[in-house]
Structures are given as structure tokens and as C-alpha cells.
Amino acid sequence: MMTAFRTLDQADVKGKRVLVRVDLNVPMENGRVTDATRIERVLPTIREISDKGGKVILLAHFGRPKGRDPKESLKPVAEAVSQHLGKTVAFADDCIGEAAANAVSSLKDGEVLLLENTRFHAGEEKNDPDFVKELAKLGDIYVNDAFSAAHRAHASTEGLARVLPGYAGRTMQAELDALTKGLEAPKRPVVAIVGGAKVSSKIDLLENLVTKVDALVIGGGMANTFVHATGLNVGKSLAEKDLAATAMRIIEKAREANCAIILPVDGVCAYEFKAGAHNHTYGIDAIPEDQMILDVGSQSVERINAAINDAATLVWNGPLGAFEIPPFDQGTVAAARHAAQRTKDGKLVSVAGGGDTVAALNHAGVTENFSYVSTAGGAFLEWLEGKALPGVEALRA
Ligand code: 3PG
Ligand code: MG
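The joint structure predicted for all components is written out below.
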């Protein structure tokens, strides 16, 4: 699956109305944006189109409203985008109809406008052709810069690319390049680190990865399910014991595909799930009945780091322990810093993604040192599952 997308290099935007789908689904508290990463990511595309004399019309969703809901308005986000961009961003109260049309027609070349939440209309999530037509009236060209929403086949992420000339924005382009280097056409050996709480949410992902990577490190709560499945006692640890057969199937599939599975060999244990809880590290075959594993132990970290040393490419999704409550962040932080150092030394291509993963890498202070960190949650997971993303496929056509 190589790129073959039209990018902004092929787009003639001067004097054109350019509908740009961005992901502005940013965390907000009391009307203020608390993490502007997604805003920062789309600035290059906005600036480029604006500098080339295009009229930038931003389309985005926010939250999961059922119909129009002032609590899910993008208006405060328009102000935040404007601040980060250093340029006025106009706002229209609706993404179709008269309000939108008027706002668009008053745009001069190079100016920027954000339209209200596309999900205020049911046609968005239904990818309703009539709604697509209403949106399409507002633009001459369509640019999708929202990889993180590309797993949705919605009007603004998929439908529009079918009716207007479509191009990948710079962030979409960077994301697709990074993902190609990570898994589609990686430099081998490839190691994947998958963590997080539950196997149940990542079965498809694990099954796909074992056929693609040379080694798979399993950490976090989901490792307990595997440890339990192999017949060991995990005490009071979080584990999905009903998924033992699934875990064994994944292990078997890995064996057939020649993928090494690396499970923890020790665990940092405590009596309770609490920051600063009194803790002790035990071998994985000696986890006490009345304690729970909250992080991988130092011997496991050594094994993981050794696997990273053997790899040319690393794909990472999910923390190795309960990183949000110190000191159970240590395993994740140590492995993340090691991967960052290998990347800095030019020895490793490192691609990471997923909500918790970004938070964990930020916490470890290494986000800048990874080759690529995706802000996508669901879209990154579906990509790891080997699924085609509708928003990406529509751009290929
Ligand atoms: C996200 O925040 O993951 C994307 O913006 C997609 O949002 P959704 O999960 O509500 O479709
Ligand atoms: Mg989501």
C-alpha cells in the first residue's frame, strides 16, 4: 500500500475556495482548549493554502452531539486556532446553508474561516449524499488533513472526496508516510510494543501485528491476561481470564508467523491501585495472591530494551504499566526513553500513537525524539489492525 495520493503539491489553490477537513476534536475545560496539539498539527496546511492565495474553509467535528448543541460548538476552538495561527479565523454558525454560504462569499484570498460542528447535522455521520452536496457547494477543492478522523466514513471525511477534487493535507501526508515506514514497508527487524489495560479491545490489532512484525512486546494490564493464560498466577491483577483461549490463539498465530512474543518476566506489585502505594517487584512466576501487578519490573524493561536494540523499526501503542500513578510509570518511561535515544542515535525509526500512548510519551518527555507520534486514537488502532481507513481510501481514487 504505497502512497499514490494527490498532495498539496498538485493542488492549484490560488483564488479557490478550499474545503479543508481538520480534526479539532481537542480536549476542553471551561471553554478553553487544554491541549492544542491537534491545532498545532494542522497549521502548516492552513498556512500553505493561505500563503498560496487560497480561501481556507475549515470543516471539523467536535464531540458526539445528537443534533445542534451549544455545548459542542466549535466557536471557542475558532478563537484558539486564530491564536495559534496568528491570524483571524472567521466563524460561521452553521456548516451548510445561508450562514455558511455568506461567510464563504465574504472571504478574500488567503483568509481563513471555520464552519460550525459538522455533527450538528445527522447527514454528516450518515454520509448522506444530499448533505455532501450542501457541503460541496461551498468549495472548489477538498483537502483532508484529519488522519485521526479517517476511520469514519462521514460526509466531511469521505463523501466530499468523492465529489470534489481531493488532496491530502501536509499532516495527513506526514502521517501516511510515517505509517508506511512503520508497518507497510518498514526497515526490518520490526518490533511492536502493545500495552494498555485490555486484550478485549485489541484482539484484532494483536492478531494483525503478529503476522507483520518480528517481535511483539506485550505489556500493561493486557499482559496479565497472557501470563494467566500460560498457567501462571496473577493474584489480584487486572486480567480478562475469560480471554485465556484468545490469548493462546494469538501466541499460536505468532509462532506460526515466526513472531517472537515478549511477555513480562517480572512485575511491580502493590496491594492497592494508588499513587505511591507500597510496592515490591516479584518474578512473574511468584506474584503474591493478594497483590496486583501495576508495572513491568526492571528485568522486563531490560528485555524490552534489548528487543528495541535489535530492531530497526518500532511501533508503539499503549503504556506498559499504570503510568498515570507514579511510581508505576517507571517501566513505560524507561522503555520510552531508551527508544527515544536509539532514534536520536539514528538506529531506530519509532512510530507511536493512541491517546494514552501520547500522554505516556509526553510524561516521559520524549515525544519530540520519536520519529513520529500520531495524535490519532481510533484511526491509529484501526490502521494497526490492518483495516482500510475510509477517509484515506477516498483520497486514493
Ligand atoms: C478522535 O478524537 O479520536 C477523532 O476526532 C474521532 O472522533 P470520534 O471518535 O468521535 O469519531
Ligand atoms: Mg475517538
